[in-house]
Amino acid sequence: MRREREEVSTTVNTETEPRDRVWTIPNALSFARLLGVPLFLWLILINQDWWALGVLVFAGMTDWLDGKLARMLDQTSKLGAVLDPLADRLYIFATLVGLTIRGVVPVWLAALLVLREVLLALTIPVLNRHGYGLLPVSFAGKAATANLLYAFPLLLLGDHAGTYADVAKIIGWAFVIWGTALYWWALVLYVVQVRQLVLADRSGTGSGLSPGDP
Q1: Interacting residues of 146 by C-beta distance below 8 A, sequence separation 6+
Q2: Within 13 Å of residue 117, how many CA atoms lie on the same side as its CB?
Q3: From first to last of its 214 residues, what are the pLDDT tens digits of the chain?
Q4: What is the DSSP secondary-structure string of 74-91?
Q5: What residues have CB less than 8 Å from 112, skipping those under 6 apart?
Q6: What is the Cα–Cα distance from 190 to 39, expressed in whole angstroms?
Q7: What phi-psi label fits residue 202: left (phi over 0), alpha (psi between -120 and 50 degrees) or beta?
């Protein structure tokens, strides 16, 4: 029975596993999005908010487009699976740094989000020690990232004067609250999954999980 389960698992993984490709259209879009991160941070620091928002719009469009093209052109890849969440995290980090320096975002919020990333990073050597790579991002993690990516541009707009800025600040903080809560909940789910994988590996029964179950 166990051999049959392993054979089925191997078949499924072979059919769905992204390939080792680098030069694809989706990956090129992801690289372009990554190159925009330092430009975006620089624009925030010199108070060129509208240009910074333009870079964010470009990043959001390429984020949507690279995923759609990867599926449509059958160009999914292991590199793309790493670049996509990496770009999202770097944009969040760049925005967080810029807005904290400008006093738009309080230091405690920045510390809370950075601490979450540090704790997540501590699971990597545990996974590597047991022969696992990075686990796919859960739905909660994707929802958290989406909330934060909406939140920070709105807070950037809220740093201006006018009715639109007041409305943007209120909506932005709503997204911050939901995004931060989901961000930490996603970490809890991730740690639970890591623990299940490690315990199953030690007992020699196999993982019994498919990556991304949370």
Answers
A1: 179
A2: 16
A3: 444 434 434 443 444 455 666 677 777 777 888 888 899 889 988 988 889 888 888 887 777 776 677 777 676 767 667 777 778 788 888 888 888 998 888 999 999 999 998 998 898 888 888 777 777 778 888 899 889 888 888 998 888 888 999 999 999 999 999 999 999 999 999 999 888 888 887 776 554 444 443 4
A4: T--BHHHHHHHHHHHHHH
A5: 180
A6: 32
A7: alpha
